[in-house]
Amino acid sequence: MNAATDGGAMRYAGRISQWNDEKGFGFVTPHDGGTRAFVHIKAFQVSGRRPAEGDLISYAAVPDARGRLNATEVRFAGQRILTPAPAPERDMRPRRPPRRIPRVAIGTLFLAAVVGLMVVGTLPAVIGLGYLLLSAASYLAYSIDKEVAGRPRWRRTPESTLHTLDLLGGWPGGLIAQQVVKHKTSKQSFQQAFWLTVVLNLVAVAILWRAGIAATWTRWLLG
Fold this sequence. Notes:
Shape: elongated
Radius of gyration: 22 Å
Number of strands: 6
Oligomer: single chain
């Protein structure tokens, strides 16, 4: 296990393998294996950002009364040791919780609308079936990636793969999975790319629909 001393205290290097930003806690897994430790937002040194899954951190590990490891004196990789400011100078105002996006509702309503339009014959079947199949694939990909996130020896699903599935039409399923399995919702860069894929997909589908290309594909594939 990567360890170093800092003022007499043994410190470790690891990566946040799970993080619940709404509740402000998660787990950190040491780089070279070993027991993962519980980490709380209050254990982090003052910083300009909140933790996210995948962040590299250094920390001291202290067992609690039940023998479970807790990460303390947590710093992001490369962050300098800061001297705590006097109590009167600290901003003691509670942080506002992040705005929740009703991901399950949005994804479910969109798929329901797709099915409805397909049933009445307004939407070409190739588009409707494409959304349903790709959404199932995207949901499965998110779920598997979440499952192996805390297992260093397991290979993660590349973010590019998730984005490709979403871009092709799986974004409703990906959106639902993000809320259900609590995955990729707090990583800002991923969310920005995700919503871009949603916009690009909707624009592309609208063009295929209006130009009659989707209807042609439907007749060719389904007869």
